[in-house]
Amino acid sequence: MDGAGSVNTAAGRRSSPGRGERLADWADGRLGLYSLAKANMRKVFPDHWSFMLGEVCLYSFAVLILTGVYLTLFFEPSSVEVVYEGSYTPLNGIVMTRAFESTLEISFDVRGGLLIRQIHHWAALVFVAGMLVHMMRVFFTGAYRKPRELNWVFGWTLLMLGIITGLTGYSLPDDLLSGTGLRFAQGAILSIPVVGTYVAFFLFGGEFPGDDIISRLFPIHVLLLPGIMLGLVVAHLILVFYHKHTQYPGPGRDEKSVVGMPFLPVYMAKAGGFFFLVFGVLAIIGGLAQINPVWAFGPYRADLVTTGAQPDWYLGFSEGLIRVMPGWEIDLGGHTLVLGVFIPFALFPLILAAIGVYPFVEAWITGDRREHHILERPRNAPVRTGLGVAWLTLYVVCLIGGGNDIVATYLHLSINTITWFVRIAFFLGPVLAFVVTKRICLGLQRRDRDKVLHGRETGTIKRLPHGEYIEVHAPLTQAQRHTLTQHDQPPPYEIGPRVDAGGVRRPVTVSQRVRERLARAMFGPGSHIPKPTPEEYREITRGH
């Protein structure tokens, strides 16, 4: 009796749910977490190194949030003038704003303040660079196609907001370098016809530099823009989970299946380790590589400018456009239109906007309404790849223009030579880059075709009975042939006969003509090398 009672008591104790299980049941009954976790925690993610580029963006953004919260506790966004009497003795007795003084206090008096400042700045640079490289990966592989156009727009918006957030962030310390950047921005705003003066007065609270710009940039930088970006990041990740993850072509991979590892526990463990790796690398860079030493520049004064003042690299594009633009001015109706500043100022967002709308333009040209989950190798889309390389070439050319004084100094060249080089390369560089890239892609397609038909070169030379020397080719495996021939080569859009069977001329709109010409240029016979057919492969292998 006693033994049986003991067994029953133990069984009862084992059958009663624990505290954690009761908490899980309570949450599941109200939030439906079990079904949500069951559907998503085992979701399969493909494994490829290029997918880590998006994670670099995510983790650097997390580092930005963490370090930004710490810096916000000590920074004072005030334009009130004070006389500095602090730890950095070379600036003692200098009149400066309270914003600059608090930046010096963070750097020299707050424990770990300088390290956190530098980690924050490096993380911002890595964040924007990661977004650009990640978007280029998506662009070159065609990962933006249906159903991911909206996710592309989210990513593009994050890139634009990241650039603006970077501008507002490095303007807050009110040092001589950041003040020069604000002066540049104010001049660009003033160039806007008719309303430029009103917009500048509204932003700066009067004549430059004004007393309100720092206090206005602060909530924009620490609350408004990060809040919008955080919402976009969450939406971006939700869509990544909702859509099947894209994957590179290969055996067993098609539009309906994904080959990879489950999210939990494999992918989750890798993601956690990669986060600490990114955080550690940023911490090492922040501790060893000095960046933005505001004490060396001093406080901002409207009558001074730093020698060799340069913006962060992601804004060098806009400054390069303005530096190399001729100083054109037009007097119209009593208003002076400063075209030498306004045209580059307008070109900057337009060139970036071309990236944002490209997926919709391509979808209109192709008329393709299918879902795409298999990525394209860049070589199999030569025109798209050429356009991407042309855009990057244009960016690099304008970046050289933004640092024309630095380039001229270090290379011992005339600054006028650099300026004229950028002016010419602005038009010729992207064209040459497009042509060269397209030819390289076509050459790589020919090589893939030859590898499928003849196999790979082994380096082994064999002499035939009649004296001819040949190189022995090893045939590819079925998986390798599948990878090289999995891509589609759909025919380009065509309007069709202009006259129908009844002899009546069909109405053709201008948009249809433009669409046909663009489709022929992007997907016509000159844009790809035909894939080898099964008949060609059987004929050649039968000959072997």
From TrEMBL:
Identify one Pfam family in the record. Answer: Cytochrom_B_N_2
Question: Where is this protein found?
Answer: Cell membrane
Q: Which residues cross the membrane?
A: 51-75, 119-140, 152-172, 184-205, 217-243, 263-288, 337-361, 381-403, 415-437
InterPro entries recorded: Cyt_b/b6_N, Cytb/b6-like_sf, Di-haem_cyt_TM
Top-rank taxon of the source lineage equals Bacteria
Cofactor(s) the protein needs: heme
What keywords does the record list, in alphabetical order? Cell membrane, Electron transport, Heme, Iron, Membrane, Metal-binding, Respiratory chain, Translocase, Transmembrane, Transmembrane helix, Transport
Q: What is its EC number?
A: 7.1.1.8
Indicate how the chain sits in the lipid bilayer: Multi-pass membrane protein
For molecular function, the Gene Ontology terms on record are: metal ion binding; oxidoreductase activity; quinol-cytochrome-c reductase activity
Main localization (coarse): membrane
What are the recorded Gene Ontology BP terms? respiratory electron transport chain
Q: Tell me what reaction this enzyme catalyses.
A: a quinol + 2 Fe(III)-[cytochrome c](out) = a quinone + 2 Fe(II)-[cytochrome c](out) + 2 H(+)(out)
Q: Where is this region: Disordered?
A: 1-21, 523-544
Q: Would you tell me the protein name for this molecule?
A: Cytochrome bc1 complex cytochrome b subunit
Q: Which organism is it from?
A: Streptomyces chromofuscus
